[in-house]
Every structure is written in C-alpha cells, then in structure tokens.
Amino acid sequence: MQYTVTALGLTKKYGKAYALNGLDMHVPSGSVYGLIGRNGAGKTTLLRVLCGLQEPDEGEYALFSVKCGDKNIKSSRRRIGAIIEKPTLYNDMTAAQNLKIQAVALGLPSYDFIPELLSLVGLSDAGTKKVRNFSLGMKQRLGIAVALTGGPDLIILDEPTNGLDPQGIVEMRELILKLNREQGITFIISSHILEELSKLCTDYGFIDRGRIIKEINGAELDTLLRKSTVLKVTDTKKAAAALDTAGLQYKINSDDTVVIYGEFSLSALTAKFSSVGAELLSAVPRDESLETYFIELTGGGKNE
Amino acid sequence: MSKLIRAAFYRYFHSILFYVCLALSLISAAVFSYAVRRDKEMYAGLLLLQSLIYAVLLSVTVGGEASGGCKNKIIYGYSRLQIYFSELIAASAVVSGIYLFYIIFSFLFNISTVSQTPVSLIMQSLLGFYCISLCICALCVFISFASGKTIAAAIICVILVFGIYITWEPTETVLNKSEYFTVYTPKNGAKDESGQPVLQGVRDPDDEDMIEVKQKNPEYVGGFARTLLVLYRDLNPYCQLKRYNAVLRPYFYTEEERRHANGLISPYLIDAGYLDTDITEDEQKFLDTAPLYPLAVTAVTVPLGALLYRKKKFR
After folding, report:
1. Which residues, including other chains, have CB under 8 Å from residue B163's CB and lie 6 or more apart?
2. How many other CB atoms are found less than 10 A from the CB of residue A149?
3. Which of A9, A85, A277, B231 could cross-link A59 (Cys pair, CB 3.0–4.6 Å)?
4. Beta-ladder partners of B69
5. Distance (Å, rounded) from C-alpha A219 to C-alpha A206?
C-alpha cells in the first residue's frame, strides 16, 4: 500500500508534558483519514508537526515518501493544503483576493482557477464582500479554497466543522467527499464529532496520550461496528452447527458466547438450537457506534 | 523568496490603509512645507506624524501576517527566515516609496528653499532621514513578528514612537545643563544668618570685594548615565531632527529675508547665528555620522528579529 504520510516514533514535549509520545502513523494515499482523540490527546500538535509549524523533538515523518529532514521536503510541502484550528485569511480582503495572495505566494502562473475554485466551495456569489463580513461557514469554505490553491494532493483539516451549523456541516462533508472522489485528494481530518467522521472517513487513527493506539480502515471498522447480538448458549459447538444451517454470520467469542451479525428471528433460532441439543440462555442486542468503540478502545477514561 | 515579496506587495497595494497612509503623507508634506515657509522650522511633530504613519501601516500589515497569514506559507514549505526577510524587504520598499513620495511633494511645495540649499547638504539630510525611516521600519517589523498579534504590535509600535518623541526634549534639556555655574561671594568670607557663605548670581561691577566662585551644578548628570544619555540623544530621531534643523535653517530664508534680517538685527544684542550658512566642525561631524546611528539600530534589530522568529513557537 502506498502512503501519503507516515510517522515513526514522533515525540513532542511541552515542558515536561508529552504532547506526542512515540507516535506511529500511516495515512494511505487517496484516503480520508480520521484522527480521533480526546481533547489534549495530541491531535493538533500532530497536525502542526506534519504541517511544519512545529518541529518534533524526536522521531521522523515522511510526506509523499520524503522524510522530514530531507532537502526535498519543501517540494513535498507545496503539495499540502491545511487548515489548522481556524482558516488563516486576510479579513480586509475579498475571497478572490485571498486566493490570489496564495497563488502569488505559490508562484502560480495564472489566476484563472479562482472563479472555478470559489464556485466549487460555494462562494461564487461572495463578490466584493470582505472576509470580515463572512459567516463562520463561509470562512471555513474559503479556508478550504485557500487550502486547495495550487492543487494539493493532501489536505489537512483540524476540526473543520467547528462552529458550523448543521447545514454547513453537511456542505463541508459533501465538499470533502467530492474532492476525495473526483480529484483523489488525500485528507487527514481531526474532529471530536465522531458521528460526522464516520460518514466521511475511509481510514481511522485513534490517538490517545500522544500515541496512535489503533489504525483501522473503514471496512474493518464496519465489521466491528455492525449490528450484532451476543448469545449465551450451553454448547457453542452445537450452536454453531445450528447457525450454519440457518445461514447466519457469527463469531464464537468464548466457550459460552456467540456473536451473531445481522437480523434473525429469535424464536426460530431457539427452535433450531433445541433441535441440535443446545440451549439459549440469553440474547443481548449490541449496536456499537464509533463513539462506543472509541471509548472502549481508550479505556473510557475522562477527558484530560 | 521573490514570490513571498510579491505576495506582500499585493497585500499592501490592496489595503485601504496603504492609500490612507499615502494621503496622510501628502498632508504631512504640505504641513512640513508650510511650516518651513512660515516659521522657518522643521517641527518634531511632523516627524512624529510620519513615524506614526509608518508604525501603523507596518504593524497592521506585517502584524496581520505574523499573527496568522504566515502559517499558510510555512505549510507551503517556506522557511521562517524567508518569511521574515520577505516581509522586511517589502516593508522597507513600501517605506522607501512613501518617503520618496513625501520628499517629492515637499520639494514641489518648497521649490524655492530647495533651490538655494547646497545639493550635498540636501543629500546628506535626505540620507539621514531615510536611514531613520528604515530604522523605524526594522523596529516595526521586529515588534510585529515578536508580538505575533496585530493589535498588540500596533499598540507597541505607537507607544514606542510616542515614547521616543516625548523623551527627546527632556533629554536635550538634561544634557544642556552645564557642569558648573559661576557665583559671587564676598572676599572676607561673610556668612548669612544660617551660617552659609553669602552667594549671589550677579556681581555689582563696582563692588571689588566680591570674588568669582565656580559651583558644581547639582542637576548636572555625569558619568555613565551621561554616556547613556548622549547615546540616546544621538539615536533619537527627534534630537537628530533638531540638529538637522540647525544646519538647514539658514536656507529656509530667502536671500532677501536674510539681507533684511542682517540689516535690522544687531549682532551685539541678538544672536543672528541661525542665519549663518557656514557649517561648523561639529555640524559636519554630525552630518557625517548621523545616519550611522539608525543604521546601527537596524543592524541589531534585523538579525535579532529573524532569530527570535525562527525560534518562535506557534501555539
């Protein structure tokens, strides 16, 4: 698999406190990578380090397979767009002027892309309105447009839906998905709205106390999170035989526990179990969400 | 780095503040010319206005960049030194442009004065004020990057400019105090009722019983404090302005005004030295060395600012 971003043993300290503590990370190319963690887990520090706004104390990372200490890292950075915490915009200028400044700084030969880019993020009607008069949602969209200037291959978004209304969140999600699907742009998105991330991401990295404690792709996570029922039975082998004949998907968890995925008829299943000599002791439905999975993964502790 | 400089220029030229500052400079040039014509004086307040124009324009524009705009450039792979120096170069160019604008209009408003002033003197004075402008520019860029916040940078820059302005006159006053002053006391050592020697500031020409005594001035500042004050005076642009004023002032008078004044003013009663166009040794030394002081401040400020910004942590 090809990775756009990899990190190995990244460490960053503020005083004696570790913001990143030997973090490893792998962001597949073309993915929408969701960075999930509590407040203070190290999400923003990680994104700042990847963007070059901070230097790691230890460890290394690579952008487009170019290591951070390499001479060519600058050319790799030209392929990145980012919004860290809030979009950095010039408030006394219009949306188009903001984009033009970025284009000039990047040395782009033409500014013809500006109307198209504004249209893409839904700001084609912004006209001569100064950014200071923009709503939060408009600023976020312009921030994305700024990040898109120069045609980046990787966009890093730190809490992109912060402060957006429900409509704005939907628009932002649709825009990210569109860019990912149509232009193949890789995204790294940190957010504390897990529900939102679950609708967007193809890959996930769970960060806790400065470390990625689990990296998982969307398909794997779907399997883990799909609707299931935990059955307690007297004999799992006999129960498995009954489940096979019923054509249900299942997993034997322990000597007396079977997890069944999908919908089924409880009375029909009880009858099948009886026919093979197994007794159903209890059936507990489980509908795990990304949120409960995250809490389970991090031990369910409080926010720090 | 040329791309960054171009981006910085774009910001200046698309900012209303830049054009407001240009208009204020035009007004400042007109007031300067009027003051020279009417009062034959270059007032410190005019330099204050021009310094404030630079301070506000640069702190708002560079401060805006330092407080956030530069983040995008770092993400694009530019180094902090490239960002710092591109902002400094653009700011210096903008200040140079405004300065040139100011000078052109001042000359146009005051063509008669300019025509009778020796070119070398004009050039030396222009160079001196240009170095002061560059020094203010370097300080404002330094403060903007060090503070990292637009409003904080603007407030600090304005306070700095005002601080330098309000301290120039007291500095001159303190330094002009003589170390000793002369008093007169009776030869016979007569004392007053409190037992102190009788002292008087003026001697009666007929009184031969009085002798001259030199007394230490208690308000005189000497030693290291004086060295520091002298350095501060040499660095202070308003103190420099006063000395430039002394050199240039005779040329603010037309030939006719000078002849008229010389005819009316008795050299024995009133000091007409301000009409004297001869440059003293001290004045020549000042003209030769004056630009070095702001340049020295600039030379310290620029690497210090770049170093601080390089180490600055983005929170």
Report:
1. none
2. 23
3. A9
4. none
5. 16
Q: Residue A131 has what DSSP assignment?
A: G
Instruction: Tell me the per-residue pLDDT of A285-296, one tens digit each, with 9 for 90 and over.
Output: 876 777 777 777
**Shortest CA distance from A85: residue in chain B:** B315
Domain spans of chain B, in order of start:
2-172+231-311, 180-216
Over residues B264-276, mean pLDDT:
55
d(CA A205, CA B171) in angstroms, rounded, equals: 64
The pLDDT, as a whole number, for residue A292 is 74
* Partner B contacted by A40 (CB < 8 A): no
Residues B230, B243: Cα–Cα separation, whole Å = 14
DSSP state at residue A303: P
pLDDT (average), residues A14-18: 84
The domains found in chain A, sorted by start residue, are 3-222 (3.40.50.300), 228-286 (3.30.70.100)
For residue B127 the two structure tokens come to 């160079």
pLDDT in tens, B173-201: 888 888 888 887 777 777 777 777 777 77
Q: How far apart are CA B155 and CA B157, in angstroms?
A: 6
d(CA A135, CA A49): 29
- What are the residues whose beta carbons fall under 8 Å from the beta carbon of A127, sequence distance 6 or more? A94
Other beta carbons within 10 Å of B225: 10
The answer to whether residue A150 neighbours chain B at the CB level (below 8 Å) is: yes
Does A107 contact chain B (CB < 8 Å)? Answer: yes
- Which residues on A lie below 8 Å from B71 (Cβ)? 51, 53, 84, 88
Q: What radius of gyration, in Å, describes the C-alpha atoms of chain B?
A: 25
What per-residue confidence (pLDDT) applies to B269?
A: 45
Measuring CA to CA, which residue among B201, B173, B180, B198 is closest to residue B188?
B198
Residue B89: pLDDT over 90: yes
| Tokens 């994305």, residue located | A144
- Residue-by-residue DSSP string for B179-221: SEEEEEEETT--B-TTSPBP-BSS--TT-TTEEEEEEE-TT--
Supply the mean pLDDT for chain B: 82
Asked whether the beta carbons of residue A92 and residue B313 sit closer than 8 angstroms, the reply is no
Alpha helix positions (H), chain B: 2-13, 16-39, 44-64, 70-75, 80-109, 111-115, 119-147, 150-176, 223-235, 237-252, 255-264, 281-289, 292-311
Nearest to A92 by CA among B60, B84, B158, B149: B60
